[in-house]
Amino acid sequence: MPYKEKEIEKKYYTIGEVADELGVATSLIRFWESEFDNIKPKKNRKGNRQFTTEDIKNIKLIFHLVKEKGYTLQGARDFIKNGVDEASDKIDLINSLRNIRNFLAHLKDELPS
Q1: Residue 74: inside a domain, yes or no?
Q2: What is the pLDDT of residues 59-70, one digit of tens each?
Q3: How far are the Cα atoms of 13, 24, 58 from residue 19, in angstroms, in the given order?
Q4: How far apart are CA 84 and CA 61, in angstroms?
Q5: Number of domains making up the chain
Q6: Considering the domain boundaries, does residue 7 fall inside one?
Q7: What are phi and psi of 40, to 5 degrees?
Q8: What CATH number should be reported for the domain holding residue 53?
Q9: Rounded distance, CA 74 to CA 68, Å?
Q10: For residue 33, which of 5, 55, 1, 11 has the smallest C-alpha distance?
């Protein structure tokens, strides 16, 4: 069995990395941080935010609710408060399905005409 290099997973991400991943401005991430209790990044000595994978998961949930589903901020807060586990599971499922779709599209492009 060939040796497969294990991917190194970062423990903390910068606000810029999170914003780039979602295609939004860093100011929006800071705003959501002030509006939602479930986003609590650590801050280093310089005061720079350090987001964990859990923080990013919560931000992606908010992004999905507000930007993709059209929820108001209060509607998103209520949704998270009443069913964060269910909502998070749905987001994970949606992301998995998107990954599968992208993989299949890539395979289709690789097939000879």
Answers
A1: yes
A2: 998 999 999 989
A3: 10, 5, 13
A4: 9
A5: 1
A6: no
A7: -135, 75
A8: 1.10.1660.10
A9: 15
A10: 55
Angle at 65 between CA 89 and CA 106, to 5 degrees: 65
Alpha-carbon separation of residue 3 from 6, 7, 24, 34, 73 (angstroms): 9, 12, 38, 45, 47
What is each CA distance from 24 to 50, 66, 84, 85, 87, in whole angstroms?
A: 17, 12, 22, 24, 21
User: What's the whole-model pTM score?
Assistant: 0.66
**Unique residue bearing structure tokens 């294990």:** 6
Report percent pLDDT > 70 for the chain: 88
Number of other residues whose CB lies within 10 A of the CB of residue 65: 20
| Segment 39-89, tens digit of pLDDT | 999 999 999 999 999 999 999 989 999 999 899 999 999 888 877 666 667
Assess if residue 3 is contained within a domain: no
